[in-house]
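pasting for ref
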Amino acid sequence: MSSLRESNGVKALRAVIIVITMVLAIGPVLYGVLLSLRPFAAVLNDPLDIVPAIGEISFEAYSQAMRSAADGGYGLGGFLVNSLILAVGTVLASILVSILGAYATARIRFSGRSVGNAIIVAVYMFPGVVLAVPLFVLLSRAGLTGTLVGLVIVYVALTVPVSLYMLRNYFIALPSSIEDAALIDGCSLMGVIWRIVLPIALPGIAATAMYMFMIAWNEYLYALLFLVQERSLWTAPLGIAQLTEFDTPVTILLAGSVVVTVPVVLLFMFAQRLLISGLATGAEK
């Protein structure tokens, strides 16, 4: 009976810790969402009134944050589209390059393989600010500053070492017996990668792509450096930064923060199903 009571006590303590953690994590987010649904005047009068009344719920802050500057808004809608283009382009280019590179460093034996792996890790450890000036000089000479294409190239240069490192470790953990059997049966190397490796490695690829997306979606330094003169090409982080100005109502700032967070949440919800389906496909293979 004592062990049973102790077990119940541990379960109760675990449940309490989980509830407290959820309140601490979700509480500020929920408070911000509820404040963004209230008129700015009502927030000024009673900022601690968490739950808005039915009659005072308003989406004007979201509308004003999303509208273009020409329509009296802050242009966050256009900035979100720019960020989406950059993030998707970065993910596609980085994953396409990294799959082949990571598979080569994980499976193919060639001269200088260990040196190449060391270089990948070394580049991964470089802080972004160190690469800012060289990248700016290179893109300036190529005439790609102030363009989304130039910023995609920068993001790919920043994310490829990370995705190579992540995918390489994942490929190493995969059993090579199925690949060897496919090669013996006459399948080409590209056929092995396309038909065998990719379905099994889908969870790792999805996790890497999700990480690449978040890096490109939240990146601020290079977006500021390359796009500061082109307001129409600003990204979501630059748009949120402009909302932190002193004269911007706090409800608009909170509304913009919520809107910028939604794509990442949707990505996690979609990637959860993708990860599960990839694991099932790998089990069938």
